[in-house]
Structures are given as C-alpha cells and as structure tokens.
Amino acid sequence: MSKYDIIVVGAGHAGCEAALAAAKMGLNVAVFVMNADAVAAMPCSPSVGGTGKGQLVKEVDALGGVMARAADLSAIQYRTLNTRKGPAVRSSRTQNDKARHHAVMAGFLLGGEGVHVKQAEVTHLTVEGGRVAGVVDHLGGQHVASCVVLATGTFLSGVIHVGQVSRKAGRAGEFASYSLAADLAALGFRMGRMKTGTPARLLRRSIDFSRFEEERGDEDPRPLSLASRGIALPQVAVHMGYTNSRTHDIVRRNLSRSALYGGVVKGVSARYCPSLEDKVVKFAERERHHVILEPEGLESLEIYASGLGNSLPPDVQIELVRSVDGLEEAEIVRPAYAIEYDYLDPTQLLPTLETKAVAGLFTAGQINGTSGYEEAAAQGLWAGINAACKVMGRPSFLPDRSEAYMAVMVDDLVTRGTREPYRMFTSRAEYRLLLREDNAGERLMEYGHELGLVSADEVKDMRETREAVRAETERVKRVVVKPSAAVNARLSARGMEPLSEAAPLARLLKRPEASYEDVAALCPAEPPVSEEVGRKVEVNVKYEGYIERQVREAERFREMERRRIPEGFDFSGVPGLGNELREKLSFLRPRSLGQASRMEGMTAAGLTALWVALRKRGEA
Known about the structure:
Helix content is 36%, strand content 18%. The chain is of the alpha+beta class.
C-alpha cells in the first residue's frame, strides 16, 4: 500500500497543472495515467489560447502554472486575436508542435520534485466516513491519500463514433474508464453525457496548398509566459480555405449515416464548436464555412483540418474532404470522429472544486462539463492548489469574478452548472477591461507567491514593472507639449491633427490614432521605458474612464460577495422564498449574497427576502 498527500487521476492539461502545483507547494503527489506516452496530449487542435482562452493561459502562468511555458517551447506560430478591437478582448493564440508540446509537458511532470507518475487505471475510490481516503487501481493496488483530484478528460465511459460504428475509447487508440464512472454514480453523483469531436488529419504532401490563402502569425511575436525570454522554434503559416455547395450537399445526403444525426450520439454537443453536420444543418443559409489547415508540427506530415470535424463514415469523409478546393487528392491519415463521455454536474461542487458529497475529492477539466485545454489547465491549477491548501490546513484559494477569468469560469460552473460543453469567452466576464492579458501578473502573481508557486525574483520583476507603469502614466499626464512647427509636423506625419494649444501628452495619447510611441517621441521618458511598460501606459491612458467605471462596479460586486451566508444556514425558514428557490438554495448552498444572486432562477424579490432574513439574524 502506497501513501501520498494527494493523488491526481489523469495527466492531461488539468492533471498536470494540479499535480505540479500541489508538489510545488511541498506535498507528495502521485499521478495515475492510463498511458504515460500521452501526457498532455493534444487530441484536438494543436494550439493553445484563443479568444478568452488566452486570458486563462496568462492567468495560469501568473500563478506559477506551466501551460504558457510549454506553449512557448513548442509554438510554431503566434497570433494575437482581435487586434482591431479594444484591449479587453485581445487574446493570444499559438499553433504548436504537438510532439514537442507533449515532450515538454511530460518533462515537467516526470521531472517535478515530489511528483510520482504511475501508469495504471484507477477503477475505484476509497471513501471512508464521507471523505475520500485513496484509490484502487486495475491490478488491485491500494493507494492512500488525504485528497484526490479527478482530471479524467473524455475517458469516463468514453465512446468514439465514426458513422454508425461505435467503440469504447477515451480517445482514438486509448482505453476508456468504465469502472471509475460506475463508482462515481454509485456514490450518488449526478452524471450526464456530453459530446465533442475532432476532424480528420490529412497527409501533407497530398494537399495543394497553392489553392489556399496563407496566413502567417504576428510579425513581432511575444511569448505567452512571463518567464520565457524569446521564441524557441521557427515560425510557420497556416492555410485558409472554404467548404462549398458540393461539400454541403454531400453532408446533407448522408445525414442519416452520421452518428450525430443518425441517432447514435446522445450526449450534448458544443454549441460554440459545431461539427460540419451541425453547421450545414443549422446555418443552411451559409454558402461556405472556413477550413483551416494547421500543421501538427515542424516535422509532422499530418495536417489538422480545422472546420471539417464530423462523425460520418470513412467513405463519406473522403468524399467531403476531396470536395474542398485544393483537397481533391487529399489522403486521410486519421479519420474524424465524435466522442461521448460522462461528466459530473458541477453544481455538486464547492467553489474550491471539491465535491460536496465526498470531502477531499476534487474534480477538474472535462469531468466538470468544460471544453478546451485552457479551461482544463485553469481548473487543474485551481483544484490542485485548493487540495494542497486542504491538506496543509491553509485558507482556500478563492479569487473572485473581478480578479480572474478562471474565477468567472469556476463560479459559472458551480453556481449555474452547464448543459453543454462550457467554453471561456471574454463576454462571460463582467469586468473584462480589468481582466486583460497584459495585467495577469499584477492581478495574480502575489497570490502565486503567497502559495509558494512564484519565486521572489518573479514577484520583484512584476512589482518593478507595475511601478514603472504607474510612474510613466503620471508623467504623460503631467508633461505638457506646446504647439510648434516641429511638433505639428511630427503629428501630421502620423496622420494626426496638429496642436492649436498646449496639451498634456495624455490628451494626445487619448486620440484613437495615437500610440504611446507617437507621444513619447514628442517628449521621451528619461530613461526610456520598455516596450511592455509603454503598451500598458497606453491602455491605462486611453481607457482611463472605462477602467475607473469598472473598478467602481467591481467594488459594488465585492460588497455583495462580502455579505456572507453562514454554513448550515436554514433556507427553508426564510419568509418570502418560493419552494423552488428554497430547494435550489438548500442544494447549492451559496457562500454569499453575490453568489446567490447569480443562481439560475433567482429573482430580485427572492434576493431581497434572503438579505432581510440574514440581517434579522445579524448575518448581513
């Protein structure tokens, strides 16, 4: 019998972050993985980040996680999304070398001090007196731990569908986990089914890339991680094309042979990442849809055909792929497939991601109904930190919605649940101008340092940058530039109206067409500030009024969060609450009036009744 502080089940992005965080906090951690050759595999797109997701990657990095560092060491293209929009919605995305990404993450995990990787299937949880005590593996081995983190991905009762053919699998070529899924159901957890999928991989040499539009990455790419010092690998292009009426006709003719539309798939699909069948059926007015050819690596001969995900039979897949201009001779190396799997209703979780029914049992990633490597990594870090805090007797790690995208995601899941694979979007965050990619370090690095995940030197660098930004922001507000021939000539050269009266640099910087470099050139800082500081100063000045408004809104939000609801509070005795709300409150057990206000079905009258009851009892 082996003993550990924490056991992590699964070594995808959630499991890796959970294990490494707990180990870095000084605990002894075992990671059980069904296939040690597939640590942090990328079964779907070989990429990291994206709209909303890039913010999660930056936050994981600011807290001492490894996702951004691994992405930088395997990135073959960097691209900043939404550059024509405001800084609140700009997000980073990398195209990654799939094999290198796996190797880097496996190196982090296997080389992590205090981390013990075990290739074995966990079939049962050991539960004693309402709390988890360890796990049992497929060979009967018993392993003891104070806390267990389940990061099982798509493996719980996983079934892969290609047309009308179905096979039990956690993903292509790997076994599913049925015993553990049954064990969770036997413990009384409410489980559901979800569906995701992945497109075909095509043989590189069989594609006519000249028929596609080449899309290169950023001209001046910046690493995702604060710890990275440069770009590690050569940068490559992706190629953009489109489906056409022939493609759509092939799909329509064969819908009955699709697993999704032929009645085989029962799980709920991701609305925000629809299959080709869904796009053709639900967006019938569209004449074409994007097809993006993404290289799976520098040496890989396989191309990820983004946009062509489906659950059709192989013969139909070949026909529809070859209907796309430039893919007339394409060869499919790996067919597209759909996969169904069990997930746990996340309203059964506390905000720490610990289950309410079994103390010490935490869940993270797709088991909680989410979709995406980034969402998984953020939950894994969150669960790993909180499991470690529980073992160590430390306060829980619970930043709120005004502090982090990961907090928005966790609060959404545990408060409202999800009926479809949950995906992070910037629109989900009420205070997204405060939760930008560029200030993740300022928001979260102090937390990481307190937890032992971020070094003193890293925090020192962040504080120095923060102070430089503050000082330079004050300078551009204070320094006044007077109109002159030289000044106006420089402004005109940059396409800006000339000055007619003296003005602070900050007023010039507020002009939509002005950049920090433009105004700094009129009166440079001494000594000059870094490019990073300049970018942050520009955001602070241009969006000053909006930022101040969101700061005020966030403070009102925190006031609601400070109105705590005591553990064990009797909701059934609150006058003015309907029976349905009483039942929901008794089940969810919100920690604050703020969380209660975000419950599905909560009304203004119900919230007032709850607030009045708490005040009468001296709780609010």
